[in-house]
Design goal:
This protein is of the alpha+beta class. It has five helices and six strands; from the N terminus they run αβαββαβββαα.
Length: 148
C-alpha cells in the first residue's frame, strides 16, 4: 500500500481547485407568496457549495450558508424574476453608534434594524481650537481672554 501511495502522490497530478471559504450571504428580496419563496429557495439550494438556505418572508430576507460566491448567489436570485434583489443592507439598531443620523434610518427596514451606513460625529474643529487656546497648558491664556 505504501508503494501505491508513493506513486500516486508523486506521479499523478490533480489540478488544484480553489475552494471558497465557508460564509454567510444575506440578500434582501421581496417575496409575496409561497410560490415566490419556493422559487428562490430551489434556485439557491441547487447551487454548488450551498449548505443551508433560510428564508424569512416577513423581513424579505434570504440567508445562504456555504462555500459560495456572494455575487453568484445574488445573480441566481435575480434570475428567478426578482430583479430588485440586493445584499442585506441592514444591521441591528444597537450596533450603530448613531442610529438616528441622516441616511441611517429607513422606514422600509424591519423593526429593530437600520441601514448599514458609516456615520461619524460632526467635526468640532472650532471647538477644539478654542479649547486649546484656553487650556491650562497655554501660558498666554489670560492675555487672550482680556483681548477678546
Amino acid at each position: 500500500m505504501g508503494a501505491l501511495n508513493y506513486i500516486i502522490s508523486n506521479f499523478c497530478t490533480v489540478p488544484s481547485t480553489k475552494t471558497k471559504a465557508m460564509q454567510t450571504v444575506e440578500i434582501k428580496v421581496k417575496m409575496d407568496c409561497d410560490g415566490c419563496e419556493r422559487k428562490v429557495r430551489n434556485a439557491v439550494a441547487t447551487m454548488k457549495g450551498v449548505k443551508s438556505v433560510e428564508i424569512n418572508r416577513k423581513q424579505s430576507r434570504v440567508t445562504v450558508n456555504g462555500c459560495v460566491d456572494p455575487n453568484k448567489v445574488l445573480n441566481r436570485v435575480k434570475r428567478t424574476g426578482k430583479k430588485r434583489a440586493e445584499f442585506w443592507p441592514y444591521v441591528p439598531q444597537h450596533v450603530v453608534s448613531y442610529p438616528h443620523a441622516s441616511g441611517v434610518y429607513d422606514k422600509r427596514a424591519p423593526a429593530g434594524y437600520v441601514r448599514n451606513v458609516q456615520t461619524f460625529p460632526a467635526s468640532s474643529e472650532t471647538e477644539e481650537k478654542y479649547m486649546s487656546l484656553f487650556s491650562e497648558d497655554n501660558v498666554n491664556a489670560c492675555s487672550i481672554m482680556y483681548n477678546v
